[in-house]
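Same chain as my last thread, 416 residues:
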Amino acid sequence: MPESQSQSQHFDVVVYGATSFVGQILTRYMWNEYGNSGKVSWAIAGRSKQKLRDLQIKLGGDALELPVMVADAADKAALKEMCEQTKVVISTVGPYALYGEPLVEVCCELGTDYVDLTGEPQWIRAMLDKYEDSARQSGARIVNCCGFDSIPSDLGVYHLQQYALQSEGEPCQHVRMRVKAIRGGASGGTVASLMNVAKQAAEDKNLRRLLANPYALCPADHGFATYQENLKKAKFEDITGRWIAPFVMAAINTRIVHRTNALLEKEYGERFQYDEAMFTGKDMQGAARGWMMSLGLGAFMLGAALPPTRWLLENYIMPKPGEGPSESQQEKGFYDLRFYGTTQKGKLLKAKVTGDRDPGYGSTAKMLAESALCLAQDIAKDQVKGGFWTPASVFGETLITRLQDKAGLTFDILHD
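reply #2:
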């Protein structure tokens, strides 16, 4: 059962999975930014009391006063006691398809708000089907994908579309997100999630069909049927004047953006198109880089789907759970995303989203923390009711302001 130093305290946020790789980065950010100042009441939680104690010691100062709760991911009674004490739970316990469901079920039952950093569309779809009605009845706001996948993409499109509506009187009918520059490393947790998706897809034809559907996360009555490009190989793109290659996060980001459009009552239009890719250059070297990246990504996904090569990747090549980029690598990381939106009348609008840390960890930790605090402190239950939301559909400009003030992100409209 959970153990807390202040059983009666009602917390704004509980960081669940605080001793995981991302959880430790997130906890460090929360401690450095908010500490025990009283501006935020928060606690850390996980399955090992000793590891939580070690984390407190590592934080230093008076972090030993930080409230601690102990609860295993499979112990619903313990999870329930934890969730009853907080407004919002942040979950960093992945792969979510293996460990995430009990906490979502408990939050939906109790009406506790929830954010995570999953990038697993098949798991999100399963949770929607099982618990969305429960979340609506209890008032729980469940917000998946509050890290690099998919906040920069989802809020970047939202920011550009709000500008289009204000300046042009119509939304962009087609938005292209292009990764201009990025530096960051992978952790074992991310690799484990990717491997699990590949394994499940290889064994399940219906899952492969789901993963191929750009509207897989939209409500059943969405009505969208417009063709969506799924880039699988390098090509030269006239509208940007560059070679582009597939972007590994497009599989989840595009689904979240289309769900946002559905939840915003088709604010982007019924025939809205969205795709993502990486810039590789303007010349033949760019073409070569694009083809190499395309082949490399294809080889990785094929290797992850086949049991023998998946075993080799998991055991000898890719980082293991608990491993990831160093603190120095996280601080040197960054990303620069560009958005090209075209209205029905042919007007081209551009936006930029940047982050000042490693995208998957240093920046993700800050986005996840501020998303939880946005739910706890900025968006009342009577403003946004219970249900499964996307970052843009629930937070909008409120979170953009937080991320620019606190988390090292920028959202800019570009003018030629």
